[in-house]
């Protein structure tokens, strides 16, 4: 065994309370280097009576490592433990005092999980596990009230630009809620709604009022109530990293300079606050001078922004917040944010915008979830032919092992957004590849999200082209694609195994772009078969039961002498299901 590859620490994603009675343990070994791993567990005050040696499961792998996992239910809510690793005739022990060949001498030298305090258990909203999200940019979804259109509003369906308007508003969304219900949507994420001079609204001027071009606060309340009546949750976008240059406190800084009472609300590096040689003399989002960055460590700024977060939770019975540029705001702020929001609504769902490994925000004291852009990157790379099945399984295993299980169950998965090219465009306008991506999205771990219009064939390159107007003319919609999305949403909502079941690759080989994987819980078992090639393929895998059916058609599917053989068209898929009795 390669001892240098062995890794465990008694905290974070390696040892954590999944619920008030269960501790999850993980340990890392070199890829294909260790045959068995056992957790040696017990209570340090009653070791002999509570000792158990429990086999760990190889839960995932990446290019270099295997990851072993185990759920333990300690008798007294505390746990002492070590690991026994075996390969051939070699046995190695991992414990708090180090790695060696001699067995531990309990209860000393062991790792400890001192006690499961329920207040410390990372709890995520249960409803988010059942959610199918739909992301809406209000300005581009539907124009329901032309009377509030901005000046120079262009005809619906024109070419999107960074500064043009088409008149989308809250009334337009209200008018189309039945369409979302028909699709199967049960959660909406709105990009910013508050007063702002831009079409995207990520430069806020007034945090407590809906932008007049969208409607008003009463209409927003009416919209949220209408959503709730349909069983649709609502999440709004919070832009707390920065504001608009027209935000009154920043205007005060521009006017009074060092004499402004708001001087410490921002990061002013040089007075006057201005653009010098193309670069602002104050910190901003990126280098955009019209978006000055807040000093969120300032008590007055913190009180103001946390007050905004609490206000909308209470005012409209909001179900959660998506947090813009979340990784550029200090952790102290987000810890207080979570306390305020969860006190106002314990089931509020908090999603941070962080584009890379986000563990620092996902340990139970800040966010419930993050926008899983790494997921989108890996999925699009694979289904565009960039890597083989073996590499894809490595990539997905690495993502799964990034976070605790409760986070994985509500990680915010999407294939595109307002900041990226549209899904159809990303797969070269090949609907077959798009469908493979969407099948994977809806049969994978986490909370799936659709960007408005993807379900009817909306295309587009990066911002601003991805922010096209929604297509409402049925003759211009891809209704076959719509029906496919509707079918996949219904399948996911029907089966808990697709939401919370175990995920595992069954076939993912090097030099082969085809994959088979499973989702399974105590009631249902799915296997998903994908041909990620231009040629027809027949995929085979051992299966010992005769109770399989096609999950979408109900047709019986039988193995042949213990082997299931599934023939697939080019870029085809098949989803098999069986009930577990």
UniProtKB/TrEMBL annotation:
Classification via CDD domains: AmyAc_CMD, E_set_CDase_PDE_N
Gene Ontology BP annotations: carbohydrate metabolic process
Name recorded for this polypeptide: Alpha-glycosidase
Family according to the record: Belongs to the glycosyl hydrolase 13 family.
UniProt keyword terms in alphabetical order: Glycosidase, Hydrolase
Residues in Glycosyl hydrolase family 13 catalytic domain copies: 135-492
Organism of this sequence: Paenibacillus lentus
One annotated GO molecular function: hydrolase activity, hydrolyzing O-glycosyl compounds
Gene3D superfamilies, per database record: Glycosidases, Golgi alpha-mannosidase II, Immunoglobulins, Oligo-1,6-glucosidase, Domain 2
């Amino acid at each position: 065994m390669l001892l240098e590859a062995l890794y465990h620490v008694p905290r974070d994603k390696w040892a954590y309370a999944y619920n008030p009675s269960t501790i999850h343990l993980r340990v890392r070994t070199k890829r294909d280097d260790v045959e068995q791993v056992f957790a040696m567990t017990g209570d340090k005050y009653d070791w002999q009576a509570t000792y158990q040696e429990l086999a760990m499961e190889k839960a995932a792998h990446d290019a270099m490592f295997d990851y072993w996992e185990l759920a333990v239910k300690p008798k007294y809510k505390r746990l002492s433990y070590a690991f026994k690793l075996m390969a051939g005739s070699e046995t190695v022990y991992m414990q708090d005092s180090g790695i060696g060949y001699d067995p531990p001498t309990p209860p000393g030298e062991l790792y400890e999980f001192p006690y499961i305090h329920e207040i410390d258990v990372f709890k995520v909203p249960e409803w988010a596990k059942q959610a199918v999200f739909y992301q809406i940019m209000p300005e581009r979804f539907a124009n329901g009230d032309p009377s509030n259109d901005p000046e120079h509003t262009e005809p619906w369906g024109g070419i999107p630009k960074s500064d043009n308007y088409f008149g989308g508003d809250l009334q337009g969304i209200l008018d189309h809620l039945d369409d979302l219900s028909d699709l199967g949507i049960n959660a909406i994420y709105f990009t910013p709604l508050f007063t702002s001079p831009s079409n995207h609204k990520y430069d806020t001027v007034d945090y407590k009022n809906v932008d007049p071009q969208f409607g008003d606060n009463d209409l927003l309340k009416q919209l949220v109530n209408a959503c709730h009546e349909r069983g649709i949750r609502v999440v709004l976008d919070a832009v707390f990293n920065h504001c608009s240059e027209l935000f009154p406190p920043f205007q005060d800084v521009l006017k009074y300079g060092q004499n402004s009472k708001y001087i410490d609300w921002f990061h002013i590096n040089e007075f006057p606050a201005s653009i010098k040689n193309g670069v602002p003399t104050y910190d901003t989002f990126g280098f955009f001078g019209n978006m000055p960055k807040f000093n969120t460590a300032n008590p007055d700024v913190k009180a103001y922004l946390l007050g905004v977060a609490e206000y909308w939770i209470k005012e409209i019975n909001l179900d959660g917040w998506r947090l813009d540029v979340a990784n550029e705001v200090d952790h102290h702020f987000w810890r207080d944010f979570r306390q305020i929001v969860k006190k106002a609504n314990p089931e509020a769902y908090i999603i941070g915008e962080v584009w890379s490994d986000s563990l620092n925000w996902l340990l139970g004291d800040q966010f419930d979830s993050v926008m899983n852009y790494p997921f989108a990157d890996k999925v699009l790379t694979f289904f565009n032919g960039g890597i083989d099945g073996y590499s894809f399984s490595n990539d997905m295993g690495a993502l799964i092992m990034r976070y605790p299980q409760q986070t994985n169950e509500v990680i915010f998965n999407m294939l595109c957004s307002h900041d990226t090219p549209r899904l159809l465009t990303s797969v070269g306008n090949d609907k077959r590849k798009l469908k493979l991506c969407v099948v994977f999205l809806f049969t994978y771990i986490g909370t799936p999200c659709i960007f408005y219009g993807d379900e009817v064939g909306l295309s587009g390159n990066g911002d601003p082209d991805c922010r096209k107007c929604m297509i409402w003319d049925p003759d211009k919609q891809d209704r076959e694609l719509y029906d496919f999305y509707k079918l996949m949403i219904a399948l996911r909502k029907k089966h808990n195994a697709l939401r919370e079941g175990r995920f595992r690759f069954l076939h993912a080989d090097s030099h082969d772009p085809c994959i088979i994987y499973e989702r399974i819980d105590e009631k249902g078992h799915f296997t998903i078969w994908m041909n990620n090639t231009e040629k027809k393929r027949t995929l085979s895998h051992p299966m010992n039961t005769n109770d399989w059916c096609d999950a979408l058609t109900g047709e019986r599917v039988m193995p042949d002498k213990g082997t299931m053989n599934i023939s697939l068209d080019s870029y085809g898929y098949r989803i098999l299901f069986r009930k577990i009795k």
